[in-house]
Amino acid sequence: MAYSADQAAFQVQERLKALYRLVHDIHEERQRSEHNLNSIEKAHEKISAEERVSPHYQQQLKNLYTAAVSDAEQEEDLIRKALTKVNEIRAIRNERRIQARNAGNKETIRRGALMKMLQSSAQTLPLWVGKPGEKAPPLCGAIPMEASYVAKPGDMVAALVKGAEEEENWILAEVVSYNSATGRYEVDDIDEEQKDRHVLSRRRVMPLPLMRANPETDHSALFPKGSVVMALYPQTTCFYKALVNALPATATEEYEVLFDDPSYAEGYSPPLPVAQRYVLAIRDRKGHTHS
């Protein structure tokens, strides 16, 4: 949906108001649940002191645990609604940015600011939080995209492009458009110093993850240690072949990777941190991914 500046501002403000109310409701729900949890703890202390569980305490504990589960479910529902509002605000801001670019008002970003923006983009990428037994979806962490998936305008991708000397490199780029008739993308080099636009086939474009995987709950959505991947070299906008040396242990941590580097005796660089958003399955020239 296309928004004017005033419409976008209004829509964002409406969502911020809703988000404020939801955060307030979450706080109240958290206080209510803490009261129930304290009651459960006190009931267990009494049972421990008496060294037996009477029918009275059995029923009391059952009621308290039922209430605690209900409280947790209500809090989860409120948090998910709040996250939906955050994602809606992100989508509106991104839509406005794309409109400005299409109107020729693309903002020039200095390299230092670009590096900070890319880091912030990785840190604030939505975290997948599934329900018990629910598997991480495509484009969450290391989970590949579905075969029919098409990246949307404004999405970040890795793009295989030819340089000035005909060498091919994977660069960080932004989708401008996709032509379903030709199966080709138009992408812009994210590096402002290049300002290049490329028309590429689908096999030369790899969408970046849309969500981070939580290592504590969705470990299978991460690349295993020893996997050969493509990773964005720190402080650059280019992807290079690398080896996963260590996985993130928490949702806020990064991979530790070893980049191919013949200047070192081992053939690899020292361990370097790379965010989940910028670690991809390696792809050959025919468009097949490997790990």
UniProtKB/TrEMBL annotation:
Keyword Transcription regulation (UniProt): yes
Gene Ontology CC terms: ATAC complex; nucleus; SAGA complex
Subcellular location: Nucleus
Keywords for the protein's UniProt record, in alphabetical order: Coiled coil, Nucleus, Transcription, Transcription regulation
InterPro entries associated with the record: SGF29, SGF29_tudor-like_dom, Tudor_SGF29_rpt1, Tudor_SGF29_rpt2
Entry-linked Gene3D superfamilies: 2.30.30.140
Residue ranges of domain SGF29 C-terminal in the record: 147-288
Listed PANTHER family: SAGA-ASSOCIATED FACTOR 29
UniProt name for this protein: SGF29 C-terminal domain-containing protein
